Amino acid sequence: MEAGDAGDAMGVGEVQGQRMSGRLYGVGVGPGDPELMTLKAVRVLAQAPVVAYPAPAFENGGGESSARKIAAAHIPAGRIEIAIRVPMRPGREPASVYDNAAKSIVAHLEAGRDVAVLCEGDPLFYGSFVYLHDRLADRFPTTIVPGVSSLTACAASANRALVRRDQTLAVLPATLSDEALEARLAAPEAAAILKVGRHLPRLKALLAKLGLVEASTYVAHATRADERVVALADLDAETAPYFSMILVAKERA
Amino acid sequence: MEAGDAGDAMGVGEVQGQRMSGRLYGVGVGPGDPELMTLKAVRVLAQAPVVAYPAPAFENGGGESSARKIAAAHIPAGRIEIAIRVPMRPGREPASVYDNAAKSIVAHLEAGRDVAVLCEGDPLFYGSFVYLHDRLADRFPTTIVPGVSSLTACAASANRALVRRDQTLAVLPATLSDEALEARLAAPEAAAILKVGRHLPRLKALLAKLGLVEASTYVAHATRADERVVALADLDAETAPYFSMILVAKERA
Question: Which of A182, A235, B4, B84 gets the highest tally of CB atoms within 10 A of its CB?
Fold first, then answer.
């Protein structure tokens, strides 16, 4: 347990006179550039004896966790590490993956060990951490360390305002139907379309139909070594990585 | 000039063979807890000879800049500091404030000195930094250091998911009309209503009308010493600080 987190002094799952349970930390490690980690994320990783993170499933080739890679320099040697092997399938991830991960984490928390779960970007903004949060946050003291999200990182990489003053912002996953996207993009507000991936051709057609191509900027892998920022009008690719975004600037009516 | 910022090598305003101009940095210092500054923000402040920040105007009592207060431990002694005194009036800030601030900053940039402008939260997410960005980013090499925004900080303080998987998120300033807010809140999506302030009674009435009070959490001054998190149903205040938010959870239809 750490001091200084207001409201955490007597967390859920702690009983006076019994051994204190460990604390669950959801740690945002930011969008990719390790320098965009927060001082708090670095401190929590210096202290937590157990570190968990999502990683590609073995059936998808296994390999390195992106979140762990971002944080690697701040994970001391000898930590207990839990790689949560998440299958990359279309549709929802199997609940059993998170049931099993939660079980491993619970064992450490019940033994009094803090567990830091690494999350790309921010833990509560479209992250898979919510599946662990759903299972654990009611049972154990929990601290969320917010991180720089892909949303503001993409605006920074594009070097343009995301939203200003009285504008509204619509954050739209690319998986929405054409009808849903069109309804939202027709409104006089700024928009960010997330997780572009294989939806790129459809999104380009939709934005062209709405006369919004000139207002749109494409950003892939913001703040990473392979970052790409390009006006949508100049993008001739037919597919995009999962971690890419289209920012649409519109003035409020 | 720093190495390692991809795409910054030959910025606007630099002419080969002439003295290089300084670089403009928009530095997000996060939502309030100084530990939520990024490592990059800390490094930029260690290096930049000039630091600028918004501060209350003298007619509003003058006094300390919130952004500077967050970053204070990382501003070395002896730096040139520019306090941008912003009048707290309803409506738009006078353009002359930013014209004058831009003029001061330009003098340093043209003399080859980097200038770091401190921004609460993230520089491009509803920040007054956009007024300087509008005036300077086309003329000088510019780097935005994204920060933890109030949006994800409030979700972290509330300890609840902001958006998950295929949900959309509507980010709505409280200054919107009842009609505009109602139309947006009626949609099946998550919502965050920013800058609650004096709009609190109206927002409570509107959310009650839409049956959304139980789905709403009020968060003021997230991650600051005077942070307050309370279910909207339990909030009996009639006014709220400017830096407060209502998070509305809704499942997608």
Answer: B84
Exposure b/e, A111-124, CB count within 10 A at least 16 = b:
eebbbbbbbbbbbb
CATH of domain A151-248: 3.30.950.10
Nearest to B126 among A7, A165, A223 (CB): A165
Residue boundaries of the structural domains of chain B: 24-148, 151-248
> Of the given ranges (B88-92, B129-133, B210-214), which has the lowest mean pLDDT?
B88-92
DSSP state of A24: E
Q: What is the DSSP letter of B238?
A: S
Task: Tell me if A23 sits within 8 A of A104, measured CB to CB.
Answer: no
Hey, is the C-beta of A168 within 8 angstroms of any chain B C-beta?
yes
Pick from A33, A126, A159: CB nearest B163: A126
Quickly list DSSP for A174-243.
Answer: TTS-HHHHHHHHHSSSEEEEE--GGGHHHHHHHHHHTT-STTEEEEESTTSTT-EEEEGGG---S---SS
Strand, coil or helix: A69:
helix
Q: Which two tokens stand for residue A36?
A: 């965009």
Which residues 52-81 of B are in CB contact (within 8 Å) with A? none
DSSP secondary structure code for residue A164 in this structure? -
Cα–Cα nearest to B141, from B10, B47, B18, B3: B10
Question: Do the bridges between strand A169-173 and strand B244-248 make them parallel or antiparallel, or are there none, so unpaired?
Answer: unpaired
Q: Do A34 and B39 touch (CB under 8 A)?
A: yes
Which tens digit of pLDDT belongs to each residue from A67-78? 999 999 999 999
- The ipTM, to two decimals, is 0.91
Closest CB from B123, B156, B161 relative to A146 = B156
CATH 3.30.70.141 fits B24-148, yes or no: no
On the question of a common fold for B24-148 and B151-248, the answer reads no
Helix (H) or strand (E) holding A103: helix A95-110
